[in-house]
Amino acid sequence: MEKVRLGIIGLGAQGGAYAGFIAEGRVPNMAIGAICDIDPEKKALAQEKYPDVPFYDNYIDMLESGDVDAVVTCVPHYLHPEMGIESLKRDVHALVEKPAGVYTKQVKELNEFAATKPELTFGIMFNQRTNKLYQKVKEVIDNGEIGNIRRTNWIITTWWRPQGYYDQSAWRATWEGEGGGVLVNQAPHQLDLLQWIAGMPKKVYSNVKYGYQRDIAVEDEVTALLDYGNGATGTFITCTHDIMGTDRFEIHGDKGKIVVDDSETVTIKRLKTPESEMSATMDMQDVMRIFMGAGPGEIYDEEVLKFESVWGEQHTSVMENFAANILEGTPLLAPGSDGINGVALANAIHLSSWLGKEVELPVDEDEYFAALTKKIEEEKKSPIQK
Known about the structure:
Blueprint: E1 4-9, H1 13-23, E2 30-36, H2 40-49, E3 55-56, H3 59-63, E4 70-73, H4 79-89, E5 93-96, H5 104-115, E6 122-124, H6 132-142, E7 149-156, H7 163-166, H8 188-198, E8 203-210, E9 219-227, E10 233-239, E11 247-253, E12 256-261, E13 265-271, H9 275-281, H10 284-291, E14 300-306, H11 313-328, H12 339-355, E15 359-360, H13 365-381
Parallel strand pairs: 1-2, 1-4, 2-3, 4-5, 5-6, 7-10
Antiparallel strand pairs: 7-11, 8-9, 8-15, 9-10, 11-12, 12-13, 13-14
Helix pairs in contact: 4-5, 5-12, 6-8, 8-12
Pfam families: GFO_IDH_MocA, GFO_IDH_MocA_C
Organism: Oceanobacillus polygoni
InterPro entries: Gfo/Idh/MocA-like_OxRdtase_C, Gfo/Idh/MocA-like_OxRdtase_N, Gfo/Idh/MocA_Oxidoreductase, NAD(P)-bd_dom_sf
């Protein structure tokens, strides 16, 4: 096999982009094996753009056709685990879109089944893990350059969505259709990066607003307090109503600090002496010198790095890496089993707000599923008209 024949399930915005990337040769070790969509209009579109590519309106038929070696699931969130399992059952490699699912109970089933098929490649589209900026941040943390983490703060409110965005279709921004709002639609990459870089928190306490500034049933405003279990804490803030949004990620350690602005600039400050040692050894004259403005060069070294991003490059990097794992055994940048962590964080944030108290991770899967089911039933009884 020289190229992996990818089956694209769902020819919407994301699936259409992936088809375009492959057709343009931006994923050299992949070819479009087949396209699947239940919408007749998408069939006409596919036949016009990719006349030589087989088209299916049933993904099981595509999986059993022999036309594909792997699939990517560009479908509503609830379907990712089911389609991942059905693919792997038929010895077809699976690249699931983010999030891996809506609740950990279903994602756990996917992970457990994938573990029975170690010969197959199971990945997830965490394209931000290929972002050189975040790879650098993780490298600095993993190398201990800023010491032990004491606090993380991420405010990511650059997801502005007008009411018209939510009114596009009946399933959007519903518990039954999407399984949540900003946490499961816009912010899964940040939830993944947060735990990938800083580790999973042990407890979460959240204040979440549902339909706060938009006429929707799900969350459009989130403030979560994270407890890492070793004294370190964090905050995660996100929303979809800030038209002048902020993207700022800070990681404070006992030997330095990292600040990421707009996912473009990284400022790394490395203390010349760990803070605890400074506290134990400095006299008041030294302290006054700091208060008077001592800093760069004397107290710490500062490094500022800027990164440029090309549209689609991160997605194509995941796809190329996924195919390379199939063809050559290259290690996966984003193993599919990692997808459960971001889902667990989103579940914990939701559950804490529903219960009005701090919750421990991992959350009780059955308790969360019961609470989500209740939200869906309430939504059916009083749907928001779009």
